Protein: histidine kinase
Amino acid sequence: MIGGSLRLRLFAAGAVSILLALGLAALGLTMLFERHVERRMAADLTVILDRLLAGLDSDTSGRLAETDPPDDPRFDKPLAGLYWQVTAEPGGLIDRSRSLWDSQLALPADELSEGTLHHHRIPGPGGGTLLAVERRVILSPRLGGGAVRVAVAQDVADLTAATRDFAGDLLPFLGLVALLLVAASAVQVAVGLAPLKAVQARLAAIRAGTAERLGTAFPDEVRPLAAEVDALLEQRERQVTAARARASDLAHGLKTPLQVLAGDIDRLQAKGESVIAADLAAIGEAMRRHVERELARARRTGGTTTARAMVAAVAAQVIAVVRRTSRGEALEWSNDVPADLAVRIQPDDLTEILGNLLENAARHAAERIEVRAVAEADWVVISVIDDGPGIPEAQVPIALRRGGRLDQTGPGTGLGLAIAADLAEAWDGALTLGPTAPGAMTAVVRLPRAG
Structure:
């Protein structure tokens, strides 16, 4: 909708302004044309009027008459729209054009100075409106003296028709101009908003991990915004670094008490207090996993946006560690990951994810564990497949929940899969669990692909 789009708002405002301006221009030009034609018409009527004045003389009977009437054929055709008449003061009508037939021009009763030209809009004999010019002159003694009013009038229908024709010719041209101006407005809006598109692209690059700051390559109006965003990013990095340091200090501070607790557990076992030692060992393991979880979070929080990890190398490293355990030695391992496949994540975080998944797979696998990875567009899909009993679909949310344990008989705290899911989500990825076939279990990690 227009209310939600700055581009459409600017375009609509520009288009409306253009149409209003051209509408006013069309109205103004039409009015100017009408006034010009009216002045032209009045000038032509004045020429005829001067000729009528020059033709006033005595006829053969000694009566004042128009001896040289204009030769325009419209003066001879009744109600043709062009008229003239001569009236005496006083005495009334002296002469008129045949086009008036049996009517007279209804001239206003105004005071006329000698020789002054007056313009009037008067009703015509056919019911229309006439533009009339008249002049009052004093006759010479030879013509009997006295004053006469000579008037020439023309129907304004011709003026109206000319104005209408002009408007008809003008509107298509103004329509073409409107289209060009609206197109130019669209281009102007696109060019004006291009810097915002560049800001969006830079922010997307920062989010994707290919850039760290917006920079200053923007117009003067946008540069302050970019500077504020960069300052905000810098302030956030400082806050994140401080938070990371505090979390790391807290986690490391708990390691020493855990080591002391481990020593106490060993002494209890030596004294034969195996039940108490087992309970304390479980509590200590839970605390250790919580510490590892917080350390993993601290590493992610302080990670750079240009992180990169090679999947094959990390998978090989984790497999080498897990297969040295008592459970891992009895299993067959497969690392089917392309050597050049990279993901956008810190190597330590990928190690944490794969370590938790492979430890969990080794605990439940019967004979074989396989690690695969494929690229899908902008993503890398890493699969850890074991031939264990699997997890029912309804219990998958429990396995991914903090402290969720489906097997309460074996060791563990129920945090491994939750830590892996949290780390994957922190890097814009996801962890899913589910059976791929009867007797097989798959943990799938989707992570952004690194360029």
In short: The first helix runs from residue 6 to 54.
